[in-house]
Amino acid sequence: MRQSPTSLARTRRAPPPDLPLSNRTSPGETELYDLAPCGLLKLDRNFVVLSANAYFYNMVGVTDDSAPIKFQGLLSVAGRIFLQTRLQQELALSGRVEELALDLVRQDGERVPIMLNAVQEADRQGRPGAIHMALWRAAAKRAYEAEVPKARMAAEEAARVKADFLANISHEIRTPLNGVLGVAGVLARTELTARQREMVGMIQSSGGMLERIVSDILDLSKVQAGGLSLEAHPFDLQTEIGGVVEMTRLRADEKGLVFQLDAAPEVFGRYLGDAVRLKQVLGNLTSNAVKFTEQGEIRVTVTLGEAGELVFRVADTGIGFDEIVGDTLFRRFQQADAGITRKYGGTGLGLSISKSLVDLMGGTITARSKPGEGSTFEVRLPLPRVADEQPVTEAAHVGEADGPERLRILLVEDNPVNQRVVALILEQYGVELEVADNGALGLEAWRESDFDVVLMDMQMPVMDGLTAIQHMRELERTEQRRRTPIAVLSANAMEHHRQQAVQAGADVHIAKPVTPQTLVEGVERALSENSAA
User: Any idea where the Response regulatory domain is (predicted)?
Assistant: First the structure.
């Protein structure tokens, strides 16, 4: 006899009289039962369906009431195994299960993904009794769960492509910029007229701004990816911030501003932290102070807080800002208004990146200001002190070699402009320079002669720089050669490039574009690192 699913729901036989839950319901409850947007059913302890609502019958495609329905018979093979190994066991142990994923098989063979909740009664003697189930279609949920790994893989691929793109853009911009700033730096050390020196200064300033923008964009990508990191090493505070202070003093002098540094004697000493990132934060704050101040003074104060933390304050008498601007100042791409961007330039990323770095260091950064009355930025960093370093034998300096011999440097670089830039810088120091056009030629030149330092580019034809470094370090071990200081000199300036260089065996990484100062300091650092190794 054929009956509708709704009729089946109401005429399905009642549960045995020994079960405690009654099958009698009020008219309103019956309507809720039949119209529920999920399958509701009652089974005996052997999973034979005793009663069910219309949603369930429609779901499984059952229209014939001539035979009892076994729930196992509605499942796929995997579902039957799952029922026996988990569903029955969990019901026996806890009396309920929630959110089990199964596949029902309709009478026409179609699979229906479902989610299932179940609870099992106990009879008056405490024996397992009837089972009540609620189940609902889960095709959309299953599809979503299947798409999640694909979406994650797509996101990871997009992040990788973005990182590669940024690395390539950085490399392509830094390579020609190296020629501009390197030659400008050499030119600035020659005899120039006042007008020529002014023009060289403009080239250096513009190039420096372009390099800062590239670095900010790369740091922003790290912030977005959660990849901004710190490298904690012992450092001397006075030595590390000295460069920032002197650069600020020079820029202030150029604008006719008064510069003052107030540092309490007790702040100086050695600390454990990331000196590079500390200088980046202070450099950004002092650079902004000079940029936004037309007259008056720039004051940098360094003290110790009540808890022993380092406190840096950078105050200026510049344009200032109001409270509304102050609330958004550390957000990305934020400046006081569009006129500020047009007049003073900048991407609006510096303060956002500085805040991210200060947060990573466990510190705080705040600002207070009034329009037209200047600004004061305060950074508090809980950097632990470390014991003073024992004096070490000083390494050779550029232009100073042991004995009468000049310092011999091997430059492995494929770009002719970069070759010439390095040569122009180093010739002022009486360095004997040999140039190789790729990693293979550099390795050959290194094997045939002794060099005090190797300057190695990363991206080159025939053999890349990292491979050449690995071969050099391996040959030093197997042939018991003297360890040669190696500095990677590359436009690949992202953090993972630095890590790759160190892992390959380099002593230091010098990012392009280079100036006479950064190149010489990098070479001396390589000599020092090698002496300590």
Answer: 408-527
Residue 165: count of CB within 10 angstroms of its CB? 11
Residues 253 and 200 in one domain: no
**Residue 254 resides in a domain:** yes
Side-chain-facing half-sphere of 505: CA atoms under 13 Å: 20
Nearest-angstrom CA–CA distance, 455 and 442: 10
**Contact assessment for residue 240 and residue 302, using Cβ atoms and an 8 Å cutoff:** no
Q: Is residue 339 part of a domain?
A: yes
- pLDDT score of 227: 59
Tell me the H-state helices in 189-236. Answer: 194-225
CA nearest neighbour of 314 among 381, 366, 243: 366
Per-residue pLDDT tens for 227-251? 566 778 888 898 888 878 888 888 8
Are 311 and 344 part of one and the same domain?
A: yes
Please report which helix (H) or strand (E) contains residue 318, including its range. none
- Let me know the angle formed at the C-alpha of 119 by 115 and 120, rounded to the nearest 5 degrees: 140
Total number of domains in the chain: 4
Q: Are the CB atoms for 454 and 487 separated by under 8 Å?
A: yes
Q: Of 86, 118, 143, which residue sits at a domain end?
A: 143
pTM of the model: 0.50
Domain span at residue 79?
29-143
Alpha carbon 270 to chain centroid, angstroms: 28
Closest to 102 in 3D by CA, of 132, 142, 65, 131: 142
Q: Return the CATH number at 116.
A: 3.30.450.20
CATH number, residue 241: 3.30.565.10
